[in-house]
Recover the amino acids of this structure.
């Protein structure tokens, strides 16, 4: 069958159109969230209703200047962006398989403590030590996610409940290592500073931004390639779209469930290891969650579970987090950041709900017509 040039052009236009449509709703949700957040700025700064657009200008200006106002701020924003790319991609690949990996937070934490331990090994070249740091994150996060993945595949247990519980276990594992083993420094309630050979190279002396950002972008590109250009990715997406249909077509659901959870955890683990080796250099005892794993849910939702889309989504949320201090200095509550994030999530979730009922109506119509 011959394919004309006109058909190729139409296919190209359809791809572009579909891409623009997929971006339209997230972009609209961001705009709406800013317009809603302005009312809280007006309340905080005691603006009248006639000064609405002045308050809007203040909010946008502070966020932009606080995140990208100069090279130092731009680089510092990348410190927040880097772990969000990793955790966003970790959630995205799980979503593609129809899994809700709430345990990305715990897997990120396990990757972090594994890197803190491996980073203490003396006498290694950076060319060996840095890959070992990344490998430690892969192993720590992958194993931590593989446990609920195995339970889901073999016994049908709910991965949401299991991964939530493992988040709390991960905090206690870190605290035991830091406070009750020879690895930790009890007087400081932290592990020792990792070797210089294990520390990620910084982009500049004016910021903590480091090559972990490059690793994050590469990871997003590789997962995109895996999902859309390989047989493994096709099977993962098929299970996520219709598990029973995929099984009927000969796809092993259990195997893909475990594989996806391990991949998701490994990516989160690399994020934790990168954060340790590039920013923290040691692990302290944890009183609560670090938070990047949960923020990654918002990143993946805004990106519509597209690994490449997680990059701009992470930049948005990273910029909001980075500008929180500047917001406070301008008499704007830093909670505005969480408000904007929440509104974005609500709108994106609404889009999923609308599509769910549309698909349900189409299926019902197909049955009636049949």
């Amino acid at each position: 069958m011959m394919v004309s040039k006109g058909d190729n052009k139409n296919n190209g236009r359809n791809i572009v159109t579909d891409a623009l449509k997929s971006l339209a709703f997230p972009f609209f949700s961001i705009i709406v969230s800013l317009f809603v957040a302005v009312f809280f700025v007006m309340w905080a700064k005691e603006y009248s209703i006639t000064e609405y657009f002045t308050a809007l200008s203040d909010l946008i200006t502070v966020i932009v200047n606080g995140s990208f106002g100069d090279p130092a701020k731009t680089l510092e924003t990348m410190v927040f962006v880097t772990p969000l790319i990793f955790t966003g991609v970790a959630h995205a690949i799980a979503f593609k398989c129809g899994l809700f990996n709430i345990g990305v937070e715990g897997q990120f934490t396990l990757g972090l403590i594994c890197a803190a331990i491996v980073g203490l090994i003396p006498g290694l070249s950076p060319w060996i030590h840095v890959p070992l740091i990344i490998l430690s994150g892969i192993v720590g996060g992958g194993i931590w996610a593989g446990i609920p993945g195995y339970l889901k595949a073999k016994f049908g247990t709910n991965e949401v409940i299991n991964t939530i519980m493992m988040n709390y276990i991960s905090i206690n594992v870190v605290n035991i290592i830091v406070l009750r083993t020879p690895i930790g420094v009890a007087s400081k309630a932290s592990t020792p500073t990792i070797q210089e050979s294990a520390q990620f190279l910084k982009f500049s002396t004016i910021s903590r931004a480091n090559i972990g950002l490059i690793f994050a972008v590469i990871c997003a590109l590789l997962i995109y390639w895996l999902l859309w250009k390989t047989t493994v990715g096709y099977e993962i997406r098929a299970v996520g779209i219709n598990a029973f249909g995929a099984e009927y077509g000969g796809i092993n659901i259990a195997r893909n469930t475990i594989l996806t959870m391990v991949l998701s955890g490994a990516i989160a683990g690399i994020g934790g290891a990168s954060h340790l080796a590039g920013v923290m250099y040691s692990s302290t005892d944890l009183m609560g969650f670090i938070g990047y794993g949960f923020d990654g849910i918002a990143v993946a939702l805004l990106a519509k579970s597209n690994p490449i889309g997680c990059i701009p989504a992470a930049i948005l949320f990273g910029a909001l987090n980075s500008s929180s201090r500047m917001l406070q200095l301008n008499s704007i509550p830093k909670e505005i950041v969480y408000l904007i994030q929440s509104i974005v999530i609500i709108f994106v979730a609404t889009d999923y709900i609308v599509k769910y009922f549309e698909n349900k109506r189409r299926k019902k119509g197909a049955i009636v017509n049949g």
In short: The chain has two domains: 17-69+315-350, 81-308. The two ends are 30 Å apart (CA to CA). The mean pLDDT is 88.
